[in-house]
Design goal:
This protein is an alpha/beta fold. It folds into 2 domains: about 10-175, 3-Layer(aba) Sandwich (Rossmann fold), CATH 3.40.50.1970; about 180-380, Up-down Bundle (Dehydroquinate synthase-like, alpha domain). Helices cover about 50% and strands about 10% of the residues. The protein has 15 helices and 9 strands. The protein has helices at about 20-25, 40, 45-55, 70-85, 95-110, 115-120, 180-200, 210-230, 235-255, 260-270, 275-305, 315-330, 345-355, 360, 370-380; strands at about 10-15, 30-35, 60-65, 90-95, 120, 130-135, 145-150, 155-160, 170. A hairpin with a 5-residue loop joins strand 7 (about 145-150) and strand 8. Bound molecules: nicotinamide-adenine-dinucleotide and fe (ii) ion. Fe (ii) ion binds near residues 140, 195 and 261.
């Protein structure tokens, strides 16, 4: 068994840690840019972190204009702002959108490469600036992945994948997630569950470490997502979700995602449906489509989310899919594309765009054709 495993070198997981960000990050930079979005400022989450950075003597520039599913123009704006400030480091504070923007800013800040030069896999050739990430959703796991997902000017989800994108430090403070609204808790938590499931069924890079992480992640996430939705102040559930999302991130950074993400990307790129919700919409049809080839692995995951399931692989696989979809339904997320304004006429373009995401489709346990994609979209219309 040969494999390579990478992750973020320093991880601090402690409630309250974000209010000590200054002390934790001091020494890494003097003039950082702090990237976040306006929603987080409105929720009052940014203040304590920012104050602690100032108290540590850092000359910090607040950039609060990160957009969801970061469009490339917005990312370039952030790079320009960082250069104007003569930043010597980057802090990403928020959900995947803020952290992914921060990763690209840290790579481009001191570099002669452009965003287009670094798109794709292993294209970063110059040194990245110091980078600290602090997640506020329990979802993407971006704080421990080597990936940044950007929306191109053609509304396609493109990615920078390079080990340079692992930050120097991740600071995880479950207290930040206590106020996450129910739809965001549900969608981001389902995204994290999909990371774990797809890491576990990757046909090329699944390995014993990603497997152990994926199983533990799924146990924590499936066991706590409903409580986190129904009792938003439950600190144990919030902490379990944040940890689960991070473990799932570590798993899929080393054993990347498959067709749920591949078919979800056009929903984000074209219709700006939140990433987690896009994934939750495509989850059931893709799991059922994959079942003939992935029954054994799904059966193993049944033992994680629904212990006591009996029977052969096919029976336990069916039990896994049923249990998972029950959990998803209980969170209350939308289940149909038509609920989000998508019509029958949109499906061919979505299937065409999905076919372009071979980066992830190639990992899927079953080959997905254009016709397969179209029929899965039709199934959830
Ligand atoms: N880099 C990776 O490894 C990776 C993995 C999966 C997804 N992604 C990308 O991440 C992005 C999605 O990230 P996301 O799902 O975390 O959402 P997000 O960053 O787009 O944030 C969604 C919304 O939630 C709000 N929010 C965030 N934290 C909050 C909190 N604690 N309290 C209240 N509101 C809060 C934000 O203000 C925003 O309005 C997509 O672009 C997706 O493609 C990246
Ligand atoms: Fe995801």
């Amino acid at each position: 068994m040969n494999f390579t495993f990478h992750t973020t070198p320093e991880i601090i997981f402690r409630e309250g840690a974000s209010a000590e960000l200054g002390a934790l990050a001091a020494g890494r930079f003097k003039r950082p840019i702090f990237l976040t979005d306006k929603g987080l400022i409105e929720h009052g989450l940014v203040g304590p972190a920012l104050e602690s950075l100032k108290a540590a003597g850092l000359n910090v520039l607040l950039f609060d204009d990160v957009a969801a599913d970061p469009p490339e123009v917005k990312v370039i704006e952030a790079v320009d702002a960082a250069r104007k400030h003569e930043a010597d480091g980057v802090i990403g504070f928020g959900g995947g959108s803020s952290m992914d923007t921060a990763k690209v800013v840290a790579v481009l800040l001191q570099s002669r490469q452009t965003l287009h030069d670094i798109l794709g896999t292993d294209q970063v050739t110059e040194k990245r600036s110091p980078l600290v990430l602090c997640p506020t959703t329990a979802g993407t796991g971006s704080e421990v992945t080597s990936i940044s997902v950007i929306t191109s000017n053609d509304d396609e989800k493109v990615a920078v994948v390079d080990n340079a994108l692992y930050p120097d430090m991740a600071v995880l403070d479950a207290g930040l997630t206590l106020g996450l609204p129910r739809p965001v808790t549900a969608a981001t938590g389902i995204d994290a569950m999909v990371h774990a499931i797809e890491a576990y069924t990757n046909i090329h890079r699944k390995n014993p470490v990603s497997d152990a992480l994926a199983r533990n992640a799924l146990r924590l996430l499936a066991g706590n997502i409903v409580t986190a939705c129904e009792k938003p102040d439950d600190r144990n559930a919030r902490s379990a979700m944040l940890l689960g999302a991070m473990l799932a991130g570590q798993a899929f950074a080393n054993s990347p995602v498959g067709a749920v993400h591949g078919l979800a990307y056009p929903l984000g790129g074209i219709f700006h449906i939140p990433h987690g919700l896009s994934n939750s919409l495509m989850l059931e049809p893709v799991l059922k489509f994959n079942a003939p080839n992935a029954a054994h692995h799904y059966a193993e995951l049944a033992d994680v989310i629904a212990p006591g399931a009996t029977g052969d692989d096919e029976a336990r696989c069916a039990h896994f899919i049923k249990s998972l979809i029950e959990i998803v339904a209980t969170t209350g997320v939308e289940r149909r594309l038509s609920q989000l304004g998508i019509s029958h006429n949109d499906l061919p373009r979505m299937a065409e765009d999905a076919m372009k995401v071979q980066r992830v489709l190639q990992n899927n346990p079953r080959k997905v054709t254009y016709d397969d994609a179209l029929s899965m979209y039709t199934e959830v219309l």
